[in-house]
From TrEMBL:
The keyword Coiled coil applies. This is V-SNARE coiled-coil homology domain-containing protein. It is found in: Endomembrane system. GO terms for cellular component: Golgi apparatus. Keywords: Coiled coil, Lipoprotein, Membrane, Methylation, Palmitate, Prenylation.
Amino acid sequence: MAFMAKTVSERTQPTQRQSIQENNFTAHVHARPAVDGISGVLVSDSEYPVRVAFSLLNKLLEEFLMKVPKSSWQAQAMDIASTGSIPSKGDGIVRTSDFPFAQDYLARYQDPRQADTILRVQQELDDTKIVLHNTIDSVLQRGEDLDKLVEKSGSLSQQSKMFYKSAKKVRMSVFMCGALRLFPYSCCGFM
């Protein structure tokens, strides 16, 4: 990774940004203006968002230039540039204690959606869209259920009307039969 970072950094012109794909990894390079004399390289998997990677690099480089004096790293950087030697693992131009902000940024940017407001808003929009689709589906399902209920209520209404008519007929016939039995002689004039 150190060799890849050094190589892509050397081949990136000042004020340029580029991403180089190598197998499953992408090296994102941000070269500051020549007057600053630094470049930042972020090696990530190929799925890490490019815009977030360059945002992280930009913030790190800005913070580095503000917090770490150029005199503390410039001589070592010139030595690396002239000899081509890469510091061994664990060694670096600037100690972690001199620039602890790098670890903070790396921890914060592990989840790009949490670090980047645009990705966070996009994620919230996607979540809202899913909820809305589910709500619309349930409303449509309720609409179908309501149509079925309306059909059933119409059928029940017709059945209840038929029942009412037949009950009325039965009641009339029972009333007529009952009237004849109660008053069998009144119809004939015998009282």
